[in-house]
Amino acid sequence: MGLMDFFNKGVEKKVEPQAQKPVVPATPVSEAQEYTIVGGDSLSKIAKHFYGDAMKWKIIYEANKAIIKDPDMIHPGQKITIPKI
Amino acid sequence: MKKIIIHISTLLLFTIITASCAEKKEVANKEDPTDNIAGMLAGTSSKTWHMAKHKDASGDKEKVTSEEKDETLNLYKDGKFSITDAQETATGTWSTEGSHTLVMHFEGKDVTESFSIMDLSKEKVVLQAADGSEIVLKEN
């Protein structure tokens, strides 16, 4: 059994259609916007992307507590709100 | 005069010792960027993993052929991965859930594949599939 076979034997979970990553805004987010999580994302990565500061992940977490139960566990396909700051 | 010199010397010595300790503390507090799950899996930019051992679903060891040893799993820090064997290369994105699950999303597939991380260090990772089979991957 090769690597390819092994990595097709995981616990399968349906993925919602993924949205394209938004273009990095030149200025800080001025209006709340929606973002769809993609593979490899983390809240700090998203905060860095939108706010330019990974430490602001808590703002995103607080605004999406209904969707994100554990800030360390976000899933591709989840739609979250990026609040304005 | 002698007393003053002794006082100044003592003060100087104390200052040097204090500064030295503070410096050590600062170094100790510096976080190793690879000292977390994602860091151990992908390093500072990427890591190449090879299959070293394999157990089937019933726990029996299976021989890893030389061809299988040549197969590689590249995990990139940006969340992408590639798996290469003799015939093809598959790509996609990866992430972790908590500290015990590796999630792989192959490009073009509408499902993710999750694997339990049974053991993890900077040089070795043990993954378990849904059927209970396990592989030991070692860094290149």
Question: Mind sketching the topology for me?
Answer:
The complex is a heterodimer of chains A (85) and B (140).
Chain A: H1 3-6, E1 11-14, E2 33-36, H2 43-51, H3 57-63, E3 79-82
Antiparallel strand pairs in A: 2-3
Chain B: H1 2-29, H2 37-42, E1 46-55, E2 61-62, H3 66-70, E3 72-76, E4 80-84, E5 89-97, E6 101-106, E7 111-120, E8 124-128, E9 134-139
Antiparallel strand pairs in B: 1-2, 1-3, 1-9, 3-4, 4-5, 5-6, 6-7, 7-8, 8-9
Global geometry of chain B: elongated
Number of helices of chain A: 3
CATH classification, class level of the domain at 27-85 in chain A: Alpha Beta
The portion of residues assigned to helices of chain B is 25-40%
Distance between the termini of chain B: 66 Å
Shape of chain A: elongated
Weakly predicted, low-confidence segments of chain B: 23-29
Q: What is the highest CATH level, the class of the largest domain in chain B?
A: Mainly Beta
pLDDT averaged residue by residue of chain B: 83
Radius of gyration of CA atoms of chain B, rounded to a whole number: 24 Å
Q: Share of helix among residues of chain A?
A: 10-25%
Report the β-strand fraction of chain A as a percent range.
5-15%
β-sheet strand percentage of chain B: 35-45%
Average pLDDT score of chain A: 82
What composes the largest sheet of chain B?
Answer: 8 strands, antiparallel, barrel
Q: Please state the structural category of chain A.
A: alpha+beta
- Oligomeric category: heterodimer
Quote the CATH topology of the largest domain in chain B. Lipocalin
Strand order of the largest sheet of chain B: 1-3-4-5-6-7-8-9
Summarize the structure in words.
The complex is a heterodimer of chains A (about 80) and B (about 140). Chain A has about 80 residues and is of the alpha+beta class. Chain A has a domain at about 25-85: Membrane-bound Lytic Murein Transglycosylase D, Chain A (Roll). Chain A is about 25% helix and about 15% strand. In chain A, strands 2-3 form a two-stranded antiparallel ribbon. In chain A, helix 2 (about 45-50) packs across helix 3. Chain B has about 140 residues and is an alpha+beta fold. Chain B has 2 domains: about 1-30; about 35-140, Lipocalin. Chain B is elongated. The model of chain B is unreliable at about 25-30 (pLDDT under 50). Strand 1 (about 10-15) of chain A pairs antiparallel with strand 7 (about 110-120) of chain B.
